[in-house]
Amino acid sequence: MHIIHTVSDMRAFCAQSRSGMAAPSIGLVPTMGALHDGHASLVRAARADNDIVVASVFVNPLQFTDLGDCDDYRNYPRDLDADAEFLRGLGVDAVFSPSVEEMYPGFNTAPDRHPQIWVRTGRMGEIWEGASRPGHFDGVATVVTKLFQIIQPDRAYFGRKDAQQLAIIQALVRDLDMPVAIHGLPIVRGDDGVAESSRNLRLSVDERRHATALSQTLFGLRDGKFASADEAAEHLASCEGVELDYLRIVDPADLRDVPAGTRPALALTAAWVGPVRLIDNLALEAHE
């Protein structure tokens, strides 16, 4: 497995890989590291579908508050050696792990904080997670666009846990005519129902127990325990150790609120548990 740190070397690897076989396909799994079983499911899908699998490991400052000048960015878990070993065991061909300076030349030194050209996500990037984290999805769309330009994958793999991110990336490739097939993979949950996330590493034992309230509330909403999103939100807000941001029922395609009882739909929630902001979602299928 190759570990690659520069754009030029990554381009060269992809070009050489494509020249060595007839009509080879490249699958990309973009990550910020701190890898877990959810990432493994993405890599396995990419490995099954493609001749070459590339995983990126890059903690992108553009999608954090104040372009990374915040504790969330500084405290984000980083261990490239462990991540590389994890990916090697899954059969990844190359890991692209650039520095911030490599991805955004001048970012750490220029007074105007590069890059100057961003991909804007409009209304879809301003609601829900975007309202709580202004500019977050513009940062996501910008780095994903750069990765697609550098690696030029045939397919890219994302988890459905980040439902808003997935919807935005699907719109990105559609609206900008990018020749990349986007694959959304199901949420991987722990035995306690908590959605796998790199941020879970920062939860204490008690906080992990408190975090189960998110998935329990979503499943309760799906199963008819709550009559509305507002009732489910009120319940979740009352749970021990949970500081609720939002819980809404939306259209999966454009993330707009839908009337109570609409199916199919998507229930989205976000909440702070201790020092960690967690998100989760659950599909609400059509009534039989």
What is the average per-residue confidence, as pLDDT, rounded to a whole number? Answer: 93
How much helicity do the residues have? 25-40%
Flag low-confidence runs: none
Number of helices: 10
Helix-strand string: EHEHEHHEHHHEHEHHEEE
Main structural class: alpha/beta
- CA-based shape: globular
Largest sheet, strands/sense/barrel: 6 strands, parallel
How far is the first residue's CA from the last residue's CA? 48 Å
Largest sheet strand order = 1-4-3-2-5-6
Question: What is the CA-based Rg, rounded?
Answer: 19 Å
Strand content: 15-25%
Number of strands: 9
What report would you give on this structure?
The strands form two sheets. Strands 1-4-3-2-5-6 form a six-stranded parallel sheet, with helices on both faces. A three-stranded antiparallel sheet has the order 7-8-9. The protein has ten helices and nine strands. The model has no long low-confidence stretch (mean pLDDT 93). It is of the alpha/beta class and 288 residues long.
Question: What does the secondary structure layout of this molecule look like, with pairings?
Answer:
Blueprint (H helix, E strand, L loop, with lengths): L1 E3 L2 H13 L6 E6 L5 H13 L2 E6 L13 H4 L5 H9 L5 E3 L3 H4 L25 H4 L3 H16 L3 E5 L3 H13 L5 E5 L19 H18 L6 H9 L4 E9 L14 E9 L2 E9 L4
Parallel strand pairs: 1-4, 2-3, 2-5, 3-4, 5-6
Antiparallel strand pairs: 7-8, 8-9
Helix pairs in contact: 7-8, 9-10
